[in-house]
TrEMBL record, chain A:
Record's keyword terms, sorted: Cell membrane, Electron transport, Lipoprotein, Membrane, Oxidoreductase, Palmitate, Respiratory chain, Signal, Transmembrane, Transmembrane helix, Transport
Reaction it catalyzes: 2 a quinol + O2 = 2 a quinone + 2 H2O
Region annotation (Disordered) ranges: 244-266, 290-322
Protein's name according to its UniProt entry: Quinol oxidase subunit 2
Residue ranges of every copy of the Cytochrome oxidase subunit II copper A binding domain listed in the record: 128-240
UniProt organism field: Saccharibacillus endophyticus
Major subcellular site: membrane
Family the UniProt entry places it in: Belongs to the cytochrome c oxidase subunit 2 family.
Gene field: cyoA
Listed transmembrane segments: 12-33, 45-73, 94-114
UniProtKB/TrEMBL annotation, chain B:
Bilayer-spanning residue ranges: 28-50, 70-92, 99-116, 136-163, 183-202
Family from the record: Belongs to the cytochrome c oxidase subunit 3 family.
Name of the protein this chain belongs to: Quinol oxidase subunit 3
Entry membrane topology: Multi-pass membrane protein
PANTHER family the UniProt entry points to: CYTOCHROME BO(3) UBIQUINOL OXIDASE SUBUNIT 3, CYTOCHROME C OXIDASE SUBUNIT III
Keyword Hydrolase: no
Lineage of source species: Bacteria, Bacillati, Bacillota, Bacilli, Bacillales
Highest taxon in the source lineage: Bacteria
Organism: Saccharibacillus endophyticus
Family annotation (PROSITE patterns): COX3 (PS50253)
Entries under Gene3D superfamilies matching the protein: Cytochrome c oxidase, subunit III, four-helix bundle
Compartments, record wording: Cell membrane
TrEMBL record, chain C:
Family of the protein in this entry: Belongs to the heme-copper respiratory oxidase family.
TM stretches of this protein: 20-41, 62-82, 102-127, 139-162, 189-210, 230-255, 275-298, 310-332, 344-368, 380-404, 416-440, 452-473, 493-514, 591-609
Organism taxonomic ancestry: Bacteria, Bacillati, Bacillota, Bacilli, Bacillales
Species of origin: Saccharibacillus endophyticus
Domain Cytochrome oxidase subunit I profile, residue spans: 40-557
Entry keyword set: Copper, Electron transport, Heme, Iron, Membrane, Metal-binding, Respiratory chain, Transmembrane, Transmembrane helix, Transport
Listed name of the protein: Cytochrome ubiquinol oxidase subunit I
Signal peptide as annotated in the record: none
Tree of life domain: Bacteria
């Protein structure tokens, strides 16, 4: 071959190496998923590391072997063996069917165990009292209800540190996904269903929360801050919320559920009892009697049609523990 | 599939390599098409089963479906499958006239089936069950309707085949068409049996 | 009256965006240019007779590939626009709704209208030649498949300037894609673009299965088939099981949108989760449909350029069959976060991991094909070698995603985006490029310029890593897909890097266009038909192949029949005992394919706008075409006489057979 491709090769290698090094240096441990602040995210990180290590047992040798083979058996290297008819070896093929099978079995066992352990509907073991937050995905903002305190917020979330939080998640919008990477993995927010997700923040701090499943035009504005605070600060924050002049009523919720482009974080001192249940059940057949206010979301045109039956949804979501 | 290489080489041992019996290809192609059609119906059946309880508080199948008409429909369609088989037998004996008569009878039975189906749909719509009523009825009309559309297409196809046979007589080509058509017609019969059991019998029981 | 027209036009045409006006102008100019050139050089008849109505698999293949390259350009422009927006989110290069349309069309175009036609193009060009056949089993159906694809692709692309593009993501999850949240016509274009071309794909799947099962040269048993043909067989079988699900899913979504049915709606008892299940029951096999033929290409190139037999043939076949079967049992890994419960998630996690095993085995077999070989590095081989690290790393991130509880942290983030781009570009695109370079001389009779090709190769590869490696990191940092602005400054740098990579890939594409353009005028001619000193039957005939492919069909004895034949000749043994030339039975061209495609287009357009006055005649036209074909098919054949074959062969082979 001519000289030019070879110099191209060299340029290419150095460029890629440079970029890779820069990337690795730029982020030592700053990445949210790799820098967990809660027990769930921690276990998920453990699992990610186990997977990477198990995969590396194969990947690294393969990359090295690739390089060696391609280099050694280039046509210009006349010293290398050439066996054009050699195309089968039971031993070799047994090895490379065998090793991946063993690794995948190990990984599968670990995965199955962790899948049960990290089942999002499972409550976290803790001697402290659990906090419940109900989450509603709206177009395009998050509504958080604190049923124990009777307060609510939009696009901002405050939780006490070191206490398990039970999120109950639904949507009054297309399917969304609720994700706080530093605390743990996401779960879908779906209409007519209430999904449970248990997370905990181990230390006080401000974490990033986001919507992960596309719900339409201004989906990008659906992120929020998660403030994990001490118990005392949490109490104080609740008082602050309780003194907020804003309240949610059935009528104002109807307004609120209409699409808006971007909402600033807001506190609400009260919300109507059972509104979360009504949001969930309005897409369910059984909820017909619960749902008498006609508070259909603004997107729905047919008031008679908003009492959806969801027997099958119920079946599949029953174990999610409404 | 396993035997096809052997078959292929038998076929090729003649010096006319590269000439493939077009009827042979068409028949295999049609079988594979039927596989895809099976998957389409399977998807529709799965949809129906998932949505069968979702009547949204509106009228249910058990309240509206009438088995009398369905039993007659089933009888018509099963008989037509039989008569299409008889037509193929007549074809193999080169009895063109008989074959056409049996095909026409098959077509008339099929048309009778369609007539009853349209009547049933009109009755249901009259009773307030439409595609828009609930997920259950959406799935019902789509599944039963897709089968009905298949029968309708089959009828037109059969008319086209009869015209070609009248014009050109029985050739390998037209024979192949009758064979493939009868395969299709038996297939629709088999689908109907599943429809009858899952959509009608299980609902009414 | 005028006001009515104005109002209609402002609804009908997409207005208000300078980018779209620019596109309008260039589309009109390009069309006028093409019309002018064809008229000026009096080429309309040639175009119609020689190309549009052809049933020749080689020409249909070329048309597929041309269309795919145009679509690659369109999808690529979409990608570059998205990356531009994400590098500088504050500049508001794209408004949110425009951005949403672009990521939707990027995905749809790249999968349905780039990868699929490029794949079918390679199927068409290679399979009959590789198995020693004169055409596919159903040449007319093949033409029809192409025209259905073309009608679907044009219908979908039209949404850019007429009516508005879909904007609910490439898989259009309801209820977002239902009329409640998406009342415009964009989603209708989506449904009919995909539906019409999907029917074409289904027909192609049937066609290639029958071709491979029934039309192999004498002596070529299934286990002597070239590996690419095996991959086509595996992919086609997957198509016939997967695509019917897509057809029904699109039908149901259409019924929801057009007739107000309640399959996937929030009200009326509909079940949106069922759509997500159905679409992935097609969608997951689909990714294996496009990647298996790429595996097939690598198996051909690696043996040819290592000048060695493919290692572990039986393992390779078995691995491919296993992959296509298991691909039907992994779909739920696309939504572990739907809360299906630990047992369901564990099941789908394990099935997904299992796929890694046969895939890994294939990698080892390719490596050991090169082991003790004599490797040369022309462009097809470079793409093959570049594929290995790209796919191995992409495979590893795939295994990471398959671990269900960890997926809760990756799902819908840029980590996922990086993963599937890495396997789809590193696997599928690299593979199809390798195939395109490898069989290009067979298609056109000349080789593509290697120098420009190497530039394109390195730019592609650098751009690829620079673009997607940062996306893994930004995904781990919590950036989710489908957002056009972000507030986190930590993401800025990584996004800029990624955008630079995208531009480098764009530049690489331009190099490829330049490479093709340059090579048309200055090139190395393929005079022997066997420019790579290759192993399989397609290289035993002249380039480009005559319309009947093989004057006499050879008798096959081994897997690498052409290589063995060359060895035999080199040893001075008797060459192939080819029988006497006989008249060859050929299918005639048919205008019904393009006409039926046009009727499908009309019907689709009418259904998009709910214009029954247009849709019903369109569908009637489709049926009339079917009947016309049924009545005329038996007359659609002719024989090429022996003298003509002898003349052609003498000309192509310079007198020596």
């Amino acid at each position: 071959m001519s000289k030019k491709p070879r110099s191209l090769v060299r340029a290419a290698f150095s460029a890629v190496t440079l970029v890779m090094t820069m990337l690795l240096l730029s982020g030592c441990g700053n990445y949210m998923v790799l820098d967990p602040k809660g027990p769930i995210a921690e276990k998920q990180l453990d699992l990610i590391i186990i997977t990477v290590i198990l995969c590396s047992i194969i990947i690294v040798p393969v990359l090295i072997i690739t390089f060696i083979i391609v280099w050694r058996y280039r046509a210009t290297n006349k010293k290398a063996d050439y066996k054009p008819e050699w195309a089968h070896s039971n031993l070799l093929e047994t090895i490379w069917w065998g090793i991946p099978i063993v690794i995948i079995i190990v990984l599968a066992v670990i995965t199955v165990r962790y899948t049960h352990e990290l089942e999002p509907a499972k409550a976290l073991a803790s001697d402290k009292e659990e906090v419940t937050v109900q989450v509603v995905s709206l177009n395009w903002k998050w509504l958080f209800l604190y049923p124990e305190e009777g307060i609510a917020t939009v696009n901002t979330l405050t939780i006490p540190e070191d206490r398990p939080v039970r999120f109950e998640i639904t949507a009054d919008s297309p399917m969304n996904s609720f994700w706080i990477p530093e605390l743990g993995g996401q779960i879908y927010a779906m209409s007519g269903m209430s999904m449970a997700l248990h997370l905990q923040a181990d230390e006080p701090g401000t974490y990033f929360g986001t919507a992960a499943n596309f719900t339409g035009e201004h989906f990008e504005n659906m992120n929020f801050q998660v403030n994990a605070t001490s118990d005392a600060e949490y109490e104080q924050w609740i008082q602050e919320a309780k003194s907020s002049p804003n309240t949610i009523t059935d009528e104002s919720y109807e307004e609120m559920s209409k699409p808006t482009e971007k909402e600033e974080p807001t506190l609400y001192s009260s919300f109507p009892e059972g509104i979360y249940e009504r949001i969930v059940t309005k897409y369910m057949h059984d909820g017909a009697e619960l749902h008498q206010h006609g508070s259909a979301s603004a997107d729905e045109t047919d008031a008679a049609a908003d009492t959806a039956n969801a027997n099958s949804e119920e079946d599949s979501s029953a174990h999610k523990g409404h | 599939m396993a035997q096809s290489p052997a078959h292929g080489s038998d076929h090729h041992d003649h010096h006319a390599a590269g000439h493939h019996d077009p009827q042979d290809l068409k028949l295999l192609g049609f079988w594979i098409f039927l596989v895809t059609d099976v998957i389409m119906f399977a998807t529709l059946f799965a949809t129906f089963i998932v949505l069968r309880g979702n009547t949204d508080g509106s009228v249910t199948g058990a309240e509206l479906l009438e088995m009398n008409g369905i039993i007659i429909s089933t009888f018509l369609l099963l008989t037509s499958s039989f008569t299409s088989g008889v037509a193929v037998l007549a074809m193999h004996q080169h009895k063109i006239k008989q074959m056409i008569i049996w095909l026409v009878i098959t077509g008339l039975l099929g048309a009778g089936f369609l007539y009853l189906e349209v009547n049933e749909f009109l009755h249901l719509i009259h009773e307030g069950a439409t595609l828009q009523t609930s997920a259950y009825w959406s799935a019902f009309f789509t599944l039963v309707g897709t089968h009905g559309v298949h029968v309708t297409v089959g009828l037109f196809w059969m008319i086209a085949i009869i015209i070609q046979i009248v014009r050109r007589g029985l050739t390998d080509d037209t024979k192949g068409k009758v064979t493939v058509f009868s395969l299709y017609w038996h297939f629709l019969d088999a689908v109907w049996i599943f429809l009858l059991s899952i959509v009608y019998l299980m609902e009414v029981m | 009256m005028l006001d009515n027209i104005k109002e209609f036009a402002s609804e009908f045409f997409v207005t208000g965006d300078p980018l779209i006006y620019g596109a309008d102008v260039s589309i009109v100019l390009a069309t006028l240019g093409i019309v002018f050139v064809l008229t000026y050089f009096k080429k309309w008849g040639w175009l119609w007779r020689d190309w549009l109505t052809t049933v020749d698999h080689k020409k249909i293949g070329i048309m597929y590939i041309l269309a795919a390259i145009v679509m690659l350009f369109r999808g690529g422009v979409d990608a570059v626009m998205m990356r531009t927006q994400l590098a500088f989110p504050d500049l508001n290069f794209l408004e949110a709704d425009h951005y949403n349309q672009i990521f939707t069309t990027h995905g749809v175009v790249m999968i349905f209208f780039m990868a699929m036609p490029l794949m079918f193009g390679l199927f068409n060009i290679v399979v009959p030649l590789q198995i020693g056949a004169r055409d596919v089993a159903f040449p007319f159906l093949n033409s029809l498949s192409f025209w259905l694809f073309f009608a679907g692709a044009m219908l979908f692309n039209l949404s850019f300037v007429i009516g508005g593009s879909p904007d609910a993501g490439w898989l259009a999850y309801p209820p977002l894609s239902g009329t409640q949240f998406n009342p415009g016509v964009g989603q209708n274009f989506y449904i009919w673009g995909i539906q019409i071309s999907g029917i074409g794909s289904l027909a192609s799947g049937i066609n290639f299965i029958v071709t491979i099962l029934k039309m192999r040269a004498p002596g070529m048993t299934m286990m002597k088939m070239p590996m690419f043909t095996w991959s086509v067989f595996a992919a086609s079988t997957t198509i016939i099981f997967a695509f019917p699900i897509l057809t029904i899913t699109m039908l149901l979504l259409f019924l929801d949108r057009f007739f107000g049915a309640h399959f996937f709606t929030l009200d009326g008892g509909g079940n949106p989760m069922m759509y997500i299940n159905l679409i992935w029951m097609w969608g997951h096999p689909e990714v294996y449909i496009v990647v298996l033929p790429a595996f097939g290409v690598f198996s051909e190139t690696v043996a040819t350029f290592a000048r060695k037999r493919l290692f572990g043939y039986a393992s390779m076949v078995f691995a491919m069959v296993i992959i296509s079967i298991i691909s039907f049992f992994t779909w739920a890994h696309h939504f572990f976060t739907m809360g299906s419960g630990a047992n369901v998630n564990a099941f789908f996690a394990v099935t997904t991991m299992i796929i890694a095993i046969p895939t890994g085995v294939k990698i080892f077999n390719w490596l050991f094909t090169m082991y003790k070989g004599r490797i040369t590095f022309p462009t097809p081989m470079m793409w093959t070698i570049a594929f290995i690290p790209a796919f191995v790393v992409g495979g590893m991130t795939g295994v990471m995603l398959s671990v269900a509880p960890a997926d809760f942290q990756f799902h819908n983030s840029y980590f996922l985006i990086a993963h599937f781009h890495q396997v789809l570009i590193g696997g599928v695109v690299f593979g199809y490029f390798a195939g395109l370079y490898y069989w290009w001389p067979k298609m056109f009779g000349f080789k593509l310029n290697e120098y420009l090709g190497k530039w394109a190769f390195w730019l592609w590869n650098i751009g690829f890593y620079v673009c997607f490696m940062p996306q893994y990191l930004v995904g781990l940092d919590g950036m989710t897909r489908r957002i056009s602005v972000f507030s986190d400054p930590d993401w800025q740098g990584l996004n800029v890097a990624s955008t630079i990579g995208a531009y480098i890939m764009g530049l690489a594409f331009l190099f490829q266009v330049a490479q093709i353009g340059y090579s048309i005028f200055r090139h190395e001619k393929d005079t022997t038909g066997d420019i790579w000193d290759a192993r399989t039957l397609e290289f035993s005939i002249p380039s480009p192949a005559p319309e009947y492919n093989f004057a006499v069909i050879p008798q096959v004895h081994s897997r690498d029949e052409w290589w063995e034949e060359k060895e035999r000749r080199a040893r001075g043994e008797k060459p192939w005992q080819l029988g006497p030339i006989e008249p060859i039975h050929m299918p005639k061209n048919s205008a019904i394919g393009p006409i039926m495609g046009a009727f499908w287009f009309i019907a689709g357009f009418g259904l998009v706008f709910h214009w029954l006055w247009m849709a019903i005649p369109g569908l009637l036209g489709v049926f009339v075409c079917m009947f016309a074909r049924s009545f005329s098919a038996h007359k659609a054949e002719y024989y090429i006489p022996v003298e003509e074959i002898e003349r052609t062969e003498a000309k192509l082979r310079g007198g020596a057979v």
